[in-house]
Amino acid sequence: MNLLSKLKNSRIGSSISYHIKPRKVKFEWQETPVDWIPNQPFASYFINEINTILPAGEFWFCRLYNKVLPQITDEKLKEDVKAFIRQEAMHAQAHVSANNEYLSKRDIDVQRNLKIMDFLFTKALADQPFGLNVPKVLIHQWDLFRLGIVATVEHMTCVMGKYALYNTHWEELGADPNMLDLIKWHGAEEIEHRTVAFDLYRHLGGGYIARYYQSVIVIIAVLGLWVDGAAGLMRQDPRYQSIQPSLFKPWIWREWYRLSQQNNRLLPNPMWLVSQQLGYLMPWYDPVHEAKTEDALAYLDKSPAAKRAALKVA
Fold this sequence. Notes:
The chain has one domain. Helix content is 61%, strand content 0%.
């Protein structure tokens, strides 16, 4: 049997021995300014866009994983997936709180961006895409395609989680501690559960070659939606009235690249993000080697939002 056949037919279980821990968090947004990175409105809006881009997708992850849960035959992987679902649901709720209690309270309309994401995940990528019944013979392939999209996205979120977790530049600039905690807490949990989506995809029959076209889809979609959403937030700010940022105008792409050139610390460089996807395309790719679980857990043990929630429960 050749290498590609082995990769295609491998049905592994969980690749980790540790147990993923779902956590409750509570964020307090009363004091967080729109420019949560002082004197950096572009970067603040750009990262604020994660609050509108993520919840619909994370709730979709949960629905899809609950759907395929009965098909999992490895008990440790099933445990991992259940913990993943609980973490992703909490991520979505945390970003919803930022939308409702932070951005909307500061007269930033997020509904346009939320509607785009809702259409993508409740219509285009639904169990019945655009309301159409998937033929019974193709249901597993449709699920597998979507699981592959999740695995590809999760590789990207692990990369961005590493970037956020180890980034000290925002603190040096005096960034708001609440938004910092949201980003670093989320990034740390992405590192903690970084193996689950890939393990599940392969366990249910996901192949190697599909990673190539799935990566193209994900890279184009993530970068496009991120830039479009950030532009939508900026257009509401009088400081950008003369520019009218748009996905289709070069200005926003140039500005993103310019700011990311500052040691790649204020924003992740778009070309760097694309290059990080190359590792996922290697036959020997293993998400275990993408980050250090110990560093993620060290942050999660001291996250103010996690401690706040624990005190509230107690």
